[in-house]
Structures are given as C-alpha cells and as structure tokens.
Amino acid sequence: MTDADLTRPTVESEAELAFEGALRPTSLGEFVGQAKVRGQLELLLKAAAMQGRSPDHILLAGPPGLGKTTLAMIVAHESGRPLRMSSGPAIQHAGDLAAVLSALVPGEVLFIDEIHRMARSAEEMLYLAMEDYRIDIMVGKGAGATSIPLELSPFTLVGATTRSGMLPNPLRDRFGFTAHLEFYDEAELAEVLRRAASLLGIAVDGEALAEIAGRCRGTPRIANRLLRRVRDYALVHGRDADLATVRAALELYDVDDLGLDRLDREVVKTILTRFDGGPVGLGTLAVSVGEEADTIESVVEPFLVRVGLLVRTPRGRVATATAWRHFGLARGSGALFGDEL
Ligand SMILES: Nc1ncnc2c1ncn2[C@@H]1O[C@H](COP(=O)(O)OP(=O)(O)OP(=O)(O)O)[C@@H](O)[C@H]1O
Ligand SMILES: [Mg+2]
Question: How far is CA 308 from CA 42, 248, 282, in A?
C-alpha cells in the first residue's frame, strides 16, 4: 500500500465506508471546527423551523474529506426530515432527475453529491424545481412533443461540490446559502482525532494526536485514516500509540512532516525541477505528472496553496521560496528539462 492510498479519496472499500459512517458526527454540536459555517447553518435551520417551512437550498463547497456529506446528513437530522441521496454522475439525463424529484415526500432533504457533474439538461430542470417546486416533463419527440407540468412537494436541495467554479451561475444563484468549507487547523484536527479515538476505543496521548493533526493535509477524513494506520502499527508491534509510534507509522506510509503525499510532492517537485519553479500552466503540469487537470486543480492545489508551497498566477502555477526550501533545492539547480534531453 502506498501513501496515495492513505490520502486520496479512493474507491471506498466496505470497511472504509463503515469506518467513516461510525465516525460521522450526527449533529451540528458534534461537528468539529468550521465555526462560521456551523453558525450560518444553525441560523438557517432555526429560522426555517420557526416558520414551519423547508430550509433554503444549501450548497456545500470545498475540497474532498472536509465534511460535505456529513453536513448534508446533519441538515436532514437536525431539521427532522428524511434524506434522499443522489449524485451528479448518476443524473445523466433530465429523466433521471425527474424520477428522483417526483418521488420526494413533502419536506424531504435531497442531497446531490458532486452536483457539478450533473447533465446539462438536468441542470435546467433543477432551476425550475428549486424555484417553483415544479418541473416540465417532455413527452414525445419532434413536432408532436408536448410538455406536461408536474407539481413537486417542497423540498430542500443540498448540493455538494469540490468545484463550485464549474457550476453555472443560474444554478449557483438558486441556492439560498453557500457554505465554503476550509481546511481545518491543527487544534480542530486534534479534536476530530480525540473524538474518533474515543469512539474507536484507541488510547492515544495528546502529543501523538497533535503529531497526526499536523500531518493530515488539514482534512478530517485523512486524520481518521492515519489514526487507523497508527492503531494498526501499535497493535502489530505491541506498542502504545504514542509519539514515537505515530512517527514510525507515518514514516512507513511516506507521510512527510507537512502531510504531503506522493502526488503533492510530485506536483511541487515537477514545478521545481522541470520548470525551474514555474510559472507553468495547469494543462502542462497535469501531463507532466500524468494526472487529470481536474484532480490537480480541485484536490492537490488547494492544499499546496494553503501551506504556501504554490501560488496561482495568471501566467500559471509558481512554486514559492518555501517550496524550494522544503525540497532542499535551489533555483537553477534542478534537472531543468534534463530528463527529456
Ligand atoms: N467537522 C468534522 N468533525 C468530525 N469529523 C468530521 C468532520 N468533518 C468530516 N469528518 C469526518 O471525515 C469523514 C469525511 O467527511 P465527509 O464524507 O463528510 O467529507 P466530504 O466533504 O463529503 O468529502 P468528499 O468530497 O470526498 O465527498 C467523515 O466520515 C467524518 O468522520
Ligand atoms: Mg462526500
């Protein structure tokens, strides 16, 4: 197993899903960090409850693993409404969406994960549904086609996206509230870990938790995953889950002191050594590391920018002085074009 398995959102195994499920907070009170978003959601839910109506539509935006799905579940739970889950990739035709919408019970919360990947035709249907709780269903084709209006039950749409920039404006504008989830700071992550350790019955000391918190890319999902590996390491080696064990386990899994994983490192190193620190365009960078531009932009870059290794400029991505230092390199010293020539 490589570090990439540890820090990337991979296809989740059953064990992984069960593990995430067990650790998912079910109320806003249990949800650690994101104080701003929590306060905003709390107000929105309370106001709706006082007026006896469905809460406004909510868009949750941010990098993977920061709690979007968790918050969608919390919205349903806190407002005492049933939750129906769907996702953008599953909605490839307007008909797919019509089927989901027409089956909603009054007041239901509809969660659409990766909403930016929904089909265009479905997006247009969704505008109307969000605004007027109504859709037009097209029957037949060509000149004989007619549209039949269908009234829907009031519902609350919760959309999640790692790419809010990819949502068309008319769709974005129809959400009553957009929550931008930020990376968690170390104190918050230590709290996430403390909670997870106690739920899982793992004895870990504060120093050890702080060490994991500093090396999990600001992401609760990764924090929990690393905690599991530390527990395995402690178990197999018959050791306490203390600082030394954490360091040994994270070294084994190639998680460095900034929490960078293989792909993070490869992206930064490529900019440093092949493009002498940049600027380099996203497309060129993606081809150089053999990854999709989309993954680089929505998964890798946000964290590299946050830790100050990378900046985005109009001319492309540029590595910072911190990046040169972190990798122990000096400008001009890299194998500039060396490996191709
Ligand atoms: N604020 C939090 N407090 C405690 N645990 C959290 C928090 N946020 C997330 N987690 C944990 O991290 C895991 C991943 O969160 P979640 O699935 O909600 O992320 P996501 O933003 O939906 O990610 P993706 O974009 O990959 O779907 C959850 O199982 C949960 O245990
Ligand atoms: Mg999710």
Answer: 32, 26, 18
